[in-house]
Amino acid sequence: MPPKLIHYLRNERRETGLTQADIAALLGAPWKSKVSRYERREALPPLETALGYEAVMRKPVSQLFAGMYASVAAGVRARARDLLARSGVANTALRARRKRTLERILQ
Amino acid sequence: MRSLGDPRAILGVDPTKRGLAFVFFEGGRLLDWGSRRGGGNEIAAFEGILNLCPADVIVLEDPDADGSERRPRMRKLLQSLTRTAKARGLLVTKVSRLDVRRGWSARGVTRKHAVAQAIAEDFPVLEPLVPRPRKSYMDEEARVQVFDAASLVLHAFGAVVSDSLAA
Lengths: 107, 167
Prior knowledge:
The complex is a heterodimer of chains A (about 110) and B (about 170). By secondary structure, chain A is an all-alpha fold. Chain A has two domains: about 10-65, Orthogonal Bundle (434 Repressor (Amino-terminal Domain)); about 70-105. Chain A has helices at about 10-15, 20-25, 35-40, 45-55, 60-65, 65-85, 95-105. Chain A starts with 8 loop residues before the first helix and ends with a helix. The model of chain A has no long low-confidence stretch (mean pLDDT about 95). Chain B has helices at about 40-50, 70-85, 95-105, 110-120, 145-155, 165; strands at about 1-5, 10-15, 20-25, 30-35, 55-60, 90-95, 160. The chains are: A mainly alpha (about 110), B alpha/beta (about 170). The interface of A and B includes residues 1, 5, 15 and 40 of A.
């Protein structure tokens, strides 16, 4: 069953026992309101903050943002399928490697 | 740590005099919980919860079930919540409060404090919310309502199973 939430920051924070103020302090944010806005999904954290979450929670960004990752990955797979369909014969080593990469994305 | 047997996204909502208490499960895991003040517009609060917790199934108390002690305002509110959820195409499961009480009684749990403790044993993330035992002169603490919402979901979707069994 695909994840329903775009991210699980609130749940992960609660499981760690950290407060929003702790997260703000760890991420170097001046106020916890920013953390609150991320958790309520009113705003998406920038890449630097997302990586900060990974360092705090010790979980990969793709797991913390499972819903968003699933949707992005589905888009990538659909485009990989198109690319593969439009590809010609893999008659060189480079083209063969490219084809294998696209097939791996589809798996 | 335990989890719910049903992997769907399930939202349990329990209206209170202060607003709406809710718990949200996904993949059997308890992911979110809390309460929202209605401020006279509980439907807006409910929609806010639905936006925050995109559920497939909503669990509500059945105000028309035998033994329901809900007053007319709450009955109307529960009916409005049902209509709102159905208008969004969500599956609504109604649970009789009396059945929930009977279910806990069968486990030897009769008081709200004990129910909260039993739920927190299954879901330790809720431990900080377990209220102090209530004295007759004390008003019920608002956080108890989260356990009422959790009770509805646990009753509707059967026994919880341990993660080691579910894996």
